Amino acid sequence: MNIVTPEIGLIFWQVVIFLIVVLLLRAYAWKPILSSLKERESSIEGALRMADQAKLEMQQLQAGNEKLLAEARMERDRILKEATTMSNQFIEQAKTKATEEGARMIEQAREAIRNEKNAALAEVKNTAAQLSIDIAERILRRELTDQPAQQQLVDSYLKEVKLN
Amino acid sequence: MKRLLFALFCLLSLTARASEPVATTADATESENFNPGEMILHHIGDSHEWHWFTLGETHVTTYLPVIAYRAGSGLSVFSSHELAEGKVHEGLKLEHEHLVSTDGAKVYDFSITKNVATLMIASALLLIVFISVARGYAKRGTAAPRGMQSFFEPLIIFIRDEVAKKSIGPKYERYMPYLLTVFFFIWFSNLLGLLPGGANLTGNIAVTLTLAAITLLITLFSSNKNYWAHIFATPGVPKPLLFIMIPVELIGVVVKPFSLMVRLFANITAGHIVTLSFISLIFIFRNIGIAPISIAFGLFIFFLELLVAILQAYIFTLLTAMYIGGAVEDHHDADYQIGGGDGAAPAQAH
Amino acid sequence: MASPVKPPDNPDNPDNRSDRLRTVARYSGIGMQMAATIGLSTWAGYSLDKHYQTNTPWFTLGLMLLGLFAALYNVIRAVSKGE
Hints:
The complex is a heterotrimer.
Chain A: H1 8-143, H2 147-163
Chain B: H1 2-17, H2 25-28, H3 36-44, E1 49-55, E2 58-63, E3 65-70, E4 74-79, E5 92-95, E6 98-101, E7 107-109, H4 114-140, H5 148-168, H6 176-194, H7 205-222, H8 225-232, H9 242-285, H10 291-328, H11 333-336, H12 346-349
Helix pairs in contact in B: 1-10, 3-9, 4-6, 5-6, 5-10, 6-10, 7-9, 7-10, 9-10
Chain C: H1 14-52, H2 58-81
Helix pairs in contact in C: 1-2
């Protein structure tokens, strides 16, 4: 048998058997295998895509949470700050009020003291005047009897008055 | 491997009887003179009986059916045992493994030869393996592959992604059944040829011729307008030169599958010849001392052949896919080079 | 075409390895085709000469030259088209 001369019998069997094998495998092997592979790949791809999406959502959720947290923190800070300011204001106000009250009371006391002093002075003056009148009366009564003495007395008074 | 086992049996008989063993039935008559050329040709050729091995004087042979058709006497079917050792049966006899009629009539030999039997075994193996793989997919659905399924799945995906998709493009799906079948058929047949006693199926020109012819037919039937336009009006070639370009392009169409046929045939046959030659060295030198070296080289070639088995299957499939790809691609040249006469009205073109 | 999980630009990437294998197979195909073109056309010329029993092997010569030209042309086209 020449090895480079194709034999008609083998060609015949090769064509028949090979075509049968191709057709059988196409129907019972390649089609189901390839479609299963495709299905699996698309399901894996779908799963991957879903995982990616879930990750993205998670990230978004996390970001949202963080944003909320930050907002809450900011709110807290703001409230704290406000409260501090308010309390400071209160303290300041109270202090001012207390100082004012104190000043007012001191002023009142001063006023009262001044009034009392004035009243006392007026009384002293009145008393002094009364006394002077009394003295003058008595002296006048006595002097009306003694002329020189009277003169002397007036002079001494006048001197005193000048000294004042 | 069949050569290795064969050599081993020969070695056994050598040590036991210290005489030259007979290599094949053909050599039986001339047992005194070992003829490596004839032995090798016999092993890479086809035969009507399946000769497994020779142990001393005993030949272990399976006789296959002979189916012959002659215009005059019609169909004759009988066992090749009737033709063994030059016997004549129903006016037919074997001359150098070639079936001839004693009355000189033309014989159409459709016998189940060793190669046809191997072809059937390879086909049965393909069907069993891949239908059971497909059953695995049906059973497990989209779950991870298991067993045989996980062994063949990467190869199937490789053929689909790296061979078909890259060479053919978006229309690849139509050609997948042929590409996968041809790849696994060639690979399985190559491996069967490496088994001890196996036939040289893919190293037979009739087999590679058939496969290449199917590739050519698929290419021609799936070819589009651009493919033919490229052959009969090669873009960028002046009209007067076309009378030489058309034959050149037509030669190209035929040569592509022809080179596929020759490559597979030559590679597989060469591998078998090289392995057999190393084994033959033992008998040529008539020396047991040469056996370890010759077996070592034979083993080395055998492992090389294992690699060649899948490589040749891949190359055949890849080049088939490329030829199909060339026939179905929408050639870009077509847009601006073919039918240059329309150039006067480019505004209407788009 | 590659699935999204495949890492890009990895030297061990099956994509690159298979591309290399692919290129080798392609060029071996081109060489084989060149040899086959010349061989086939020469054989055709030879058988034509034998059939017509020509005195001078014009068919062999002519077809061999045509085959040579076709081989060169196909190689140049295949290589220049690139990947």
